[in-house]
# Entry
Amino acid sequence: MNALLCRGLGPIENLAWVDVESPPCGPRQVRFRTTVATLGFMDVLMVRGLYQHKPSLPYIPGSVSAGVVTEVGAEVKAIRVGQRVSASAMSGAFAEERVADEEVLLVTPDDMDDEQATSLRLTFTPSYLALVVRARLQAAETLVVTGATGGISYSAMQLGRHLGARVIGAVGSDAKVAYLRQQGFAEAINYSRESFKDRVNALTEGRGADVIFEVIGGEIFEQSLRCINAGGRVLVLGFASGRIGQVPANLPLLKNAAVMGSFLGGWKKHDPQGIAAMTREIVRILSESGMRTPIARTFKMAEGAQAMKALLSRTVSGKIMLVP
Ligand SMILES: NC(=O)c1ccc[n+]([C@@H]2O[C@H](COP(=O)([O-])OP(=O)(O)OC[C@H]3O[C@@H](n4cnc5c(N)ncnc54)[C@H](OP(=O)(O)O)[C@@H]3O)[C@@H](O)[C@H]2O)c1
# Structure
């Protein structure tokens, strides 16, 4: 099969689309022919050697993909050849075929296409974990989302609105403010040219946001602690800016506020069944509400490096997809 191969962590230009041997399918594993994969921020960090998990080399990047089952291991009970599935694991997605453990697979519902089935594992599932399970966002609370047109963040915008919250999107350009307005999110902040904390405080009559869904880290995270309401929750999702923010402990103390991590990968380790149940629940919500992950651009897997450059350019709204 052909796969995007990473032989050494570092510059993304080193990735190559090459012929590699298909891995064997173990007794509790499933092989599927890839139809589409989703590019996540984490995939790019891992290739560059900047992610906490360092894969053994060489490796095939990509965490989430979907396709049609071509082989099932002898002990697999719930999945059959010919079914459509999606898989979420640390690596192996950017290839014509993938062998995945049974427990990381979900059968794709008949009324969902493969693009949506694969995307939601990096968008709505982690944002459901953050907003519903961790922060317990309530209707009529104010939710502020940073990087609001990005993959996970735009799902948080939609889910927050679906849950009845007042949703404010914070982004890094006027073009992204315009995108949010086109999607019906009237309240938006451009933190590249206005103070994030001052705007959040102004929009909330000085109270601050009840929940801040924070993916940027660094300065924006640190400002979040200064525009959170009493009893509020600052959700730590990631550090897209490359800098991990610091917490002066007096700030959560004074506001009776919580700084809470929400990390799908970590949750999966101690409660994989819980994540599967959350994903089933989000599939039900998506089917009823019609919410979708917007697809920004589709690249060939052979052009994986260009796709990763597009993600790092901060000009994309929505998810980048890769096809074999
Ligand atoms: N905790 C979890 O369970 C979980 C799950 C999935 C993803 N994540 C994390 O969430 C973050 C976003 O992931 P994603 O897949 O949604 O990525 P994405 O679609 O590429 O969105 C990232 C956003 O971050 C902003 N950004 C700020 N500084 C940036 C920089 N230096 N380079 C690139 N983007 C920058 C950009 O928005 P602006 O230009 O508007 O600032 C961009 O839209 C990442 O840190 C990722 O690791 C966490």
About this structure: The mean pLDDT is 96.
